[in-house]
Amino acid sequence: MTKPTLEVKSGFSRLRVDLTYQGTNFSGWAKQPNERTVQEEVEKALSMITQTKVATIVAGRTDAGVHAKHQVIHTDLPTQTDINNLAFRLNQILDADIRVLTAQWAPDNFHARFTAISRTYQYKIIDAGKVTAPLDRHDSTEWFRPLDIELMNSGSKLLLGAHDFFAFCKFREGGSTVKNLITFNWHRDEKDVVICEISADSFRYNMVRNLVGAAVCVGEGRFKPEWMLDTLKNKERISDSYVFPAKGLTLISVQYPPVEQYLSNYENYLATQENSEDEG
User: Fold this and answer.
1) Residue 123 is assigned to a ligand binding site
2) What is the structure's pLDDT at 279?
3) Which of 6, 145, 152, 272 could form a disulfide with 186 if both were Cys (CB 3.0 to 4.6 A apart)?
4) Nearest alpha-carbon partner for 99 in 5, 10, 22, 176
5) Which sites are catalytic (predicted)?
6) Between β-strands 118-126 and 194-200, what pairing exists: parallel, antiparallel or unpaired?
7) Residues near 154 by Cβ (< 8 Å), separated by ≥ 6?
8) What is the rounded distance in angstroms from the CA atom of residue 57 to the CA atom of residue 5?
9) What Rg, from alpha-carbon coordinates, does the chain have?
């Protein structure tokens, strides 16, 4: 694999685009033949406005049905490209389930994926067989048993820190399964919806939904909290039946360091996560 670079070709400048989307009717972020994807829609709109072929890099790929409250991408455009009111112009072209928040020139050493220091996701569960309100049906998952938040937090906190999360990642060739789990906690909101907030330096394919499923097993009393740590240590992949549905998962934010730390974070990321898939 060719080592990624931060370099911008002469005559080009780096554009950062922040966007949000509802993933229900997309086959994920990444372009796929004969499928509707967020990347395809965004690149077509950018190419139409800039009159140049556009290829984007995303902070974290989202799977089919996964949403993003705040996603980040970058692309390199000819320096003379007019980006005045670009976010507004893009939103006139894009379907209503994608909206561009901002579009602005970024430092040349900004990289949407490799300079990010962490990604934060949210997962929403309506438990105990409660009725799902129509407005919540797209970004939450129903669960028929009541969940004990204290038990879920007891198990989840045992996984914080840097570990090999092989047991919680769907198998794919290549890439590191060693991740630094920064936040993994649960609470109920004002509507009694169960909310998970989880952040890490990066995630492997299906890792978030595997971790959510494991915590639910603890929250409904099937296993003790320590089972989550034992599973991690034993490195035996948990059953696919524990993978929770995509529709309850939302990428909330991507965090970046100060500009002067872009290069060092890029080098650190390549040293620890090269070839790793950033997917929830």
Assistant:
1) no
2) 60
3) 152
4) 22
5) 63
6) antiparallel
7) 218, 225
8) 12
9) 19
**What tokens does 16 get?**
């950062």
Alpha-carbon distance 141 to 249, whole Å?
A: 9
Q: Which of 63, 76, 127, 201 is catalytic?
A: 63
Residue 196 belongs to a domain: yes
Phi, psi dihedrals of residue 54, rounded to the nearest 5°: -115, 135
Q: How far is CA 255 from CA 4, 17, 226, 247, 250, in A?
A: 20, 14, 30, 23, 15
Query: What's the pLDDT band for 62 if we cut at 50, 70, 90?
Result: very high
CA distance 122 to 132: 18
- Last-in-domain residue among 74, 98, 113: 113
In terms of domains, do 158 and 211 share one? yes
**Does the annotation mark 63 as catalytic?**
yes
What are 186's two structure tokens?
A: 């649960």
22 φ, ψ to 5°? Answer: -95, 120
Q: Are residues 201 and 123 in the same domain?
A: yes
57, 90, 113 - which closes a domain: 113
Q: Residue 69 CB: number of other CB atoms within 10 A? A: 17
110 touches 74 (CB < 8 A): yes
**pLDDT at 2 > cutoff 70:** no
Name the token pair of 105.
């020139």
Is residue 91 in a domain? yes
| Sheet strands (E) in the chain | 12-21, 57-58, 67-78, 98-105, 118-126, 141-142, 161-164, 178-188, 194-200, 249-255
- Report pLDDT for 1: 44
pTM recorded for the entire structure: 0.94
SS3 109: coil
Each residue's pLDDT tens digit, 185-231:
999 999 999 999 999 999 998 999 999 999 999 999 999 999 999 99
Q: Cα 253 to chain center, whole Å?
A: 8
